[in-house]
Amino acid sequence: MVSHFKKKQNRNISKNNFFIKIFGVLILIVFLSLVYADFKIYKNKQKLISQLNDYKRQIQEIEERNRNLEEGIAKSDDKDFIEKVAREEFGMQQPGENVVAFVTPEQNEQEVKNNSKKSFFNIGDWPGWFSGFWQAVKDRF
């Protein structure tokens, strides 16, 4: 009978271990879900902070533009300012004046750089190569 008692005692311990393990797993699941939720909240917070900084930058740009417009309104009665705006924005000139436009060599250098970037291995450039080759063949014959 004593041995039978020991068997019952072992069964109770194994049942307790089973419930402890299930309880531990449940606590682990709750902990991991809380960590995941915290990570999502942190990520959302960073996104909102980024949006806030972007909106602050936009507000500063709009305020600067507003100041420039207010200065333009304040100067709208000034004859020199009106003449400057008419020349720069509308291309107007006084009688007897000639407008001279200068072409800067920087524009040509940029075009050369863009053309030199074409590579045989870039498939997007192939139509240009083939059309140039075809044009050369047509010019010869």
Rounded to an integer, what's the Rg over CA atoms? 39 Å
Fraction of residues in β-strands: under 5%
Backbone shape = flat
The topology string of helices and strands comes to HHHH
> Which stretches are poorly predicted, pLDDT < 50 over at least 5 residues?
none
Mean pLDDT: 78
**What is the first-to-last residue Cα distance?**
117 Å
Number of E-state strands = 0
Number of domains: 1
Helix fraction by DSSP (H/I, runs of at least 4): over 70%
Biggest sheet descriptor = none
Structural class: mainly alpha
Number of helices: 4
Describe the model.
Helix content is 79%, strand content 0%. It has 141 residues and is an all-alpha fold. It has one domain (2-118). The mean pLDDT is 78.
What is the topological layout?
Blueprint: H1 2-74, H2 79-90, H3 105-116, H4 126-140
Task: Quickly list its features.
mainly alpha, 4 helices
Task: Provide a concise account of the structure shown.
The chain has 141 residues and is mostly helical. The protein has helices spanning 2-74, 79-90, 105-116, 126-140. It has one domain (2-118).
